[in-house]
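hey team, just a heads up i'm posting the complex here instead of the shared drive bc the drive is being weird again. everything in one block, sequence lines first with there labels, then the predicted structure for the whole assembly after. its two chains so it's a bit long, scroll down
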Amino acid sequence: MEEFYIGDPDYQQGHWQLQNLPDNCAVVAQASILSQFGFDVSMDEATYVAMANGWYSPGFGTSPDDLGNVLEAYGVPTHSVDFASIEQLAAELQQGHRVLVGVNSGELWDQGPMAEFWNWFNEVTGRDSSTFTPADHAVAVTGLDLSDLNHPQVILNDPGHPDGAGQVYPLDRFMDAWENSDFHYTSTSMAPGGAGPIDFDIARFLGLGTTVAGVSFGLDPITADMAGDFVNSLVSNTDWDAVLAAI
Amino acid sequence: MTKEPKPLPNLDAVANLMTRVGLFDEQIVGKRDEDYFSSIGPVALGLFRLVVIGEIKKGKSSFINALCGIPGLVPVHDDVATSTVFKIHHAPEPGYTVFFQPEAEDKTSEIGTQKLEISEADLHSYGTENGNPDNEKRVDFIAVCAPSPILKDGLIVVDTPGVGGLFKKHREITFRHAPRADAVFFITDSVESPIGAAEVDFLKELRRITPLIYFVQTKAAQVDAEARRKRMENNIGILTDKVGLKKEEIRYFVVDSKLKSEGDEDRNLEDLEDSGFPPLMSYLQHSLKASKDRNIATVGLRRAWSKIAEIRAEIDRQKSVVSADTAEKQSAFNAELATTEEKLKQWNSEIRIQLIKEFHTEAQAIQNDILGEVSEALRVGGRISEQVGEALSESRDLKPEEIYGLVEPLSAAARAEVSQVLLECSQKLEGRFSALLGALSVKAEGSIATTALSRGVINNATLIRFSDAQLRDLAAKAEESRLFDRARTGLYGGAAGVGIAMGIGAVVGSVIPVVGTILGSTAGMVIAGLWGGYQASEFSRVKESAVARQQVQAAIDRDLQGCLTQAQTGFQKAFNTLRSRAEEALSDMVKTSLDQLSNTRQELQQRSRATAEEVQRTKQQIHGREQMLAALQGEMEAMERLLG
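-- predicted structure starts here --
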């Protein structure tokens, strides 16, 4: 069977780090990405920066709202999408971007009877899983393995798992866990030096017909990435003289 | 990640979605809706204005430097008191720019037109009482560019000069900035005295302007844990008993700026935790800013929904063209098009003029109402003037010098009221103009671009530049003349008393020699002199008090009159700009509708020439767009659910 990947999981695997505090997964995941951008940032330093700015609180962790702020603090531009589709996520990977998502760790790690039960319970009672069993963990999505289109897989760098470098999960299981963050992702708006767009015809991927949040559609020609660039340019071109004079 | 309650959609995600909606619209319509895209800016920036206030030497500037993580960002030396406002925002490189007040005769010019970039070394000359006493260099504010991560999400920190003590005039600067603040941090410390009477008065006044006051006790590490806890309890007691705050509503943080800065230097987590900053930063990010972000997100999504409706209408129009697939249908469609075109031309020549007329009438009514309200509050003898008069009438028993001493607090209170009135009026103005244009949009069965309409107009209308010259002169004159006048009056009164006593003594002495001797004696003359002096002095004091009250009232009235003139000019200018922009918007709406019709006609002509294959392709394209629209709508609906 022909191997078929989106993203560069092998390269990213070498930058994986295991979190050193019970709840600094998001911070460590960002530190791992920073190292790919050439920054020598230790986990402790990243944790300090996050804590000093209110993006990490011991005992509470990092709010999904603040995912990406440590990257931004070091000058790596990011953009965020709520209620994203797997196609949007794939498009980011295809651009060589580094992608962080919020997941429910229980649903990702322990697909035992209890997790199955809660999934079933949420579904039949119409509960919003992001409220009832919200995301409690951050991981980096490093690639999609589409070698077998009938059984697509998602490859993660998981800072919360001792063997978290390049962990492979079935797409459905990943989607179940991701749903609990309202399909939130934060992506860098650029690829690390040397990692260019990956040569892959993403149209093939669309053959999956993946349905997310009740919407099935072709690849968005107006990507979140394009919109992210626009939003970043709006912020950097702000006329601060006018803003400050009006305050 | 976190186990906290589910967060709101982040503003970056909202701005991203709004942008995709705008780009999709651009793809379909063929041109960019600049008005729509300009509405994404405020969402992307997510501005949050944090105003830091407090008495001098409480560590405000050190607190700000620690908050931003940049030592020396604003001056903090022990012998230096901040004299102007520092507005700190994010930029990749540090830098300072002084913005000057316009010259007195140039009151109509925009703030911010005169500016000067300075180095950190020059900050002292422009931003402190020592370097710029009494703001003789007419500094309006100093903009500070800071490469601080905390400011990246749109946080702007406003450092105000210390209030109280010798710097009562700084109150007015604070009151100018507090109404627009998203949060006010009131700084007190662990070392000096607890919150004092002057601060209590100040806080009471401040509460009338904004409820968003939070308390920060600095210099925590300079005392032991027990002492800082007691200080905190003491302060909270004062805030509840004297200021009237409810204990459960008080948000109070104890921090040490020095410890935070030391922690920043060597990335020491222990120092950071001990500094008390993490809970404050977390509260700032997740409570204060999140609540502001919710409002920004709601406004942004509302704007995106109206764009979605426009896209839906355009797709429907394209569908109707492509589905006119028989000669009969095309002919009917053409007829309908001609009728619509005719109607629109008529609309342009008649209805538009009628709408503009209606707009002018209503705009005039809004203008009259707003100016009437401003005038009623600010004119001589108006509401604020009356309040000053009432306060003065309660000071009948005060000595003249005490009455002169009321100039500063009364004018500060009056100016705070002026700021409040202008803020309320500008909000009303914006609201009523938006409502008017909304109503006209409905009548016109179209969409008027309203976002850019009031941009930069209304804020400028309410910017008042207070002049301290008259009040200062009055206070100084009173100070100089007070002692001399009282001495002179006492002297004259005493002399008159002695004269009267001597005259009476002589008359009585001629009849009753002993009594006359006593009365005529030196002691008698002294007693009588003192009595006479007191009476004359008392008479003079009452008279002087009345004069003082009149002078204070007159000075504040003149101040109010100056504000009124500026406000009238500002609002008038705003009205004129709004009028001309609204007319442009109405004309644009007609042009857009005519363009749409022209496009439809063109597409119809092309359609009649197109092959079956091309038609099929166009249908598929429209179907794809419908799917795209549905996807965007799905994301919007989900986000709205999150907002509640």
